[in-house]
Amino acid sequence: MRKPPSHDLQAPQQLPVTLAPCTDELLSSWVARHAVFYGVPPLAMLRHCLPETPSLRATDLSLNDNQILRLAHILCVDEATIRRTTFTDIARSSRCLIATDAIQSCSTCCPAKTEPRAILRSQLLGWRITCALCGDLLQSPSGVSCASTFGHYSATALIGERLLHDEASRKARTWVSPARIAQLLLMRRVKNPTFGNYEPWRYRVLGALIPDLDDVVDRQSLPMSSCPILPLHLRPALLAAIAMVERSGPEMLEMLCGQMRGENKVRFSSAINEIMRGTSRSTASSQLQLI
Ligand SMILES: [Zn+2]
Known about the structure:
It comes from Neorhizobium phenanthreniclasticum. This is TniQ family protein. InterPro entries: TniQ. It holds the Pfam family TniQ. This protein is mostly helical. The protein has 2 domains: about 10-90, no CATH class; about 145-290, no CATH class. The protein has 13 helices and no strands. Helix 8 (about 180-185) crosses helix 11 and helix 11 (about 235-250) packs across helix 12. The longest helix has 29 residues, at about 260-290. The chain is elongated. The structure holds zinc ion. Zinc ion (ZN) binds next to loops. Zinc ion binds near residues 108, 109 and 134.
């Protein structure tokens, strides 16, 4: 594709032909479909629109107002449509739960007739077990549903999903960030294993709340706490545990801290202190507003 001349930066040209975005389609997916239509690589297509952008992923995560305006003009839609295709409005604390690729799908809502196949925003949301559009249970790429392993936690897991959704969409604030709790629950209870066949590296804080978890996980099943996105069949356990902590209050965190050992106990304890400092600051702030 012709590289846009420098004056295009001020007056970008609309694409002669544009494709309509699918409902909830991710910006990079929409750009990729335009790239196929125009016969260029997806990044070349994106840089035709936004010359300074580093990657498709960066564009999905965040766009500034000028970039939104420019894309809206080039792709012949309004600014709200562009904004809806990205995670620009997602709370920063929830970004650790946005996957880099599609990790799930809804058999009802995922469009099948596009080429390449459209990727929806909800396919990257690591806190969802139900489709944000229709409410059906999501499926993993291999067709596994979250109902298979921890289905008995489903009612509580839905509360956890709602808490994470509300935080991500900035609809509500509770005493604690549910995404932060997700990270704490995936910490190891012991940092360095020192026992023979006992494998404490497997045993996360989460297992203290969901005892059957340790029998189900294998080494590959659980991610690092910095990226707390569980495979779909294990995710109800994490969501349910988040709901339990949120409902029980700070005492639950203290109890979990008692399950830890050594360096990780110190880290967990310091994280609790940080959370409680944030909670008392926001309480003081709301009390000031009441006065
Ligand atoms: Zn759906």
